[in-house]
Amino acid sequence: MTTTLTPHLFFPGNAAEALEFYRSVLGGDLEVNLYGVDFATQMGDAGHADKVMHGRLTATGGFTISASDNRPGETADPFKNDVILGLAGSAGDQGLRDQWKLLIDGGTVDIALEQQMWGDEYGECRDRFGVRWSVSLSG
């Protein structure tokens, strides 16, 4: 049996925008279920009707990211248990370099994508939604 690990991110009301952004960076297929559209009978909170109950991006590279908006009545900080999403490839991977540029647009660079002491190119950033990413390009 194969097991997969799928990171699931929570957002304070902008999960749909974040998922669309990740699709523009990573490519792939996006499925989004809204509280008031797809689950109206079970989760009828009118203030949450246009929020994402569950979204899943199956990226072109074969991995998956899931996301939701905070649940009705939930005000927890979506990034209090901070994680970093890592992308890795070879030094010649221009697609990964292009993804880095898209991720840092409107975000912040914590570690510039450049050659590190261990020989690989590596960088870390927070995208415009506050999600941490790392990119590693092996020599």
Automatic annotation (TrEMBL):
<dbReference type="Pfam" id="PF06983">
    <property type="entry name" value="3-dmu-9_3-mt"/>
</dbReference>
<dbReference type="InterPro" id="IPR028973">
    <property type="entry name" value="PhnB-like"/>
</dbReference>
<feature type="domain" description="PhnB-like">
    <location>
        <begin position="5"/>
        <end position="135"/>
    </location>
</feature>
<dbReference type="InterPro" id="IPR029068">
    <property type="entry name" value="Glyas_Bleomycin-R_OHBP_Dase"/>
</dbReference>
<protein>
    <submittedName>
        <fullName>VOC family protein</fullName>
    </submittedName>
</protein>
